[in-house]
Input
Amino acid sequence: MLLWQTSQTINFAQGEFVMLPAFFVLAAMKFGGLSFPMAMLAGFAVSLLVLGLLFKRLVVEPVIRHGVLPLVISTIALAILMKEGVKEFYAADAQPFPAAWATTNLQVAGMVVSVQNLVIIAVAALAVAALQYFLAGTRTGRSMQATAQNPALARVLGIPVGRMVLYTFLINAGLVALASFLVSPIYLAKFTNGETLGLVAFVAAIVGGFNQVRGAIAGGLLLGVVDNFVAAYLSAQYRAAIPLFLLIAVILLRPQGLLGRVEERTV
Amino acid sequence: METDILAVEDIVGGYGKQTVLNGTSFRVARGAITTVIGPNGAGKSTVFKAVFGLLRVQRGRVVFDGREVTNLDPRRLLELGISYVPQGRNVFPELTVLHNLELGATAAGRDANVAGRIESLMERFPMLRRKAGAQASTLSGGEQKLLEIARGLLLEPKLMLIDEPSIGLSPLLVKETFGILQDLRAKGVSILMVEQNAKRALEISDFGVVLELGRTRIEAAAGAILADPRVGQLFLGGHIAGS
Ligand SMILES: Nc1ncnc2c1ncn2[C@@H]1O[C@H](COP(=O)(O)OP(=O)(O)OP(=O)(O)O)[C@@H](O)[C@H]1O
Ligand SMILES: [Mg+2]
Output
């Protein structure tokens, strides 16, 4: 979301960004002969480089000069390129992705809880807490927020705007890689994963309020809870409709998002 | 030591193909308040942007405190002792008042006592302490301007550029804001401001500059400009004479 604010656009390839790091890891194991932990590290580093630095330098910066719409179109093209690239050069079918943790189930008060889900929730919560701490509790984090809220003013105060934007891209790439490693053991690594993930992330952002990190996260959590609830107690068939249903409800009832504020821009 | 803190010498600049500054020249005396007036679109804000490195100077020079600073980066100019409070609202709405203030010290050296300076600013402007934890978006227009001025003072600048400080403020707050600028002058800070409220501004100023179509038309003592009949007619629609 910070990325969206800083570059004033929406990355329509965000879903593919989550799909890709798992393939970096798989490729590092298959072609590089690395062990799984080493491959994860390598995949993380490559993600920072490709999805952070190169994405900023080669896609966003040259295109944003021509406006927001060209950038939106470029990210859509990038999404297709990444999807087709993985399909052509790696595999068209779903690939098993090892989990870095136990995959057993626990019995808690008569309910079956998978350790996997617990780990995902814990790691995600930890990452969110760390991000929140960094953004709100450190000088650099606040300089990043300032840059997102008003880059021209940030420049007037001597904040190194370019560096803050780079950090934003790197953090986005890091989070995306983390999400990829968490989700892929469950959904398997497949070139189409980005489509579903992108939709869910996009909807989560709108539900939570576009201009708020907290909002997007809250939106994501709400979506996850409702989604699983419906799958468990109603029918898995309705599951895919849930994000859209929530989206419509929120747009009708609270156009500014759950925690978002009405946008107020002054020059 | 030179008597002028800033000299703008024959500068040319603009936006894209449109030239706004057509050889603008004027001087800003050390330890004084100098006010730039002129009709809407004369290029007053543009001159400030050019001096502060936000707009490319295509020709001419800017000299600050005896050294040429033409087209230096804002960061570097902050370090040298210029701060700039732009026109309009300039706070980060979703950060607290304290954090907004702190960001004004981004360009401070490692050994600068930022906490001490914030403390003394809060001493001077109690509102800042009272609202330190509030989001900047909750401040009134006058409070935001005060926050912006205080933030501009964090680096203890030699010269402060301030663009239309009184816009949108009540008469009482205008008086208070101008009072702060007079205090600053008493402490030795040189001030260059742009003001719509020309009469009030010139009354507290030492010098005035009249800008029209990106050129300096008159440069004189503030009193002389206030008394100049051309000024009232040409640029202020009789505003000076009438009120
Ligand atoms: N960012 C910009 N891009 C293009 N043109 C601009 C920009 N900013 C100002 N201008 C143009 O430059 C000219 C001078 O503008 P400037 O803001 O310097 O005027 P000003 O004297 O400060 O007026 P005001 O009293 O309205 O603040 C105007 O014709 C304006 O339309
Ligand atoms: Mg102006």
Q: What stands out?
A: Chain B has a mean pLDDT of 90. Chain B touches chain A at residues 52, 54, 74-75, 78-79, 84, 86, 88-95, 99, 102-104, 106-107, 137, 151 (CB under 8 Å). The radius of gyration of chain B is 18 Å. The first helix of chain B runs from residue 44 to 51.
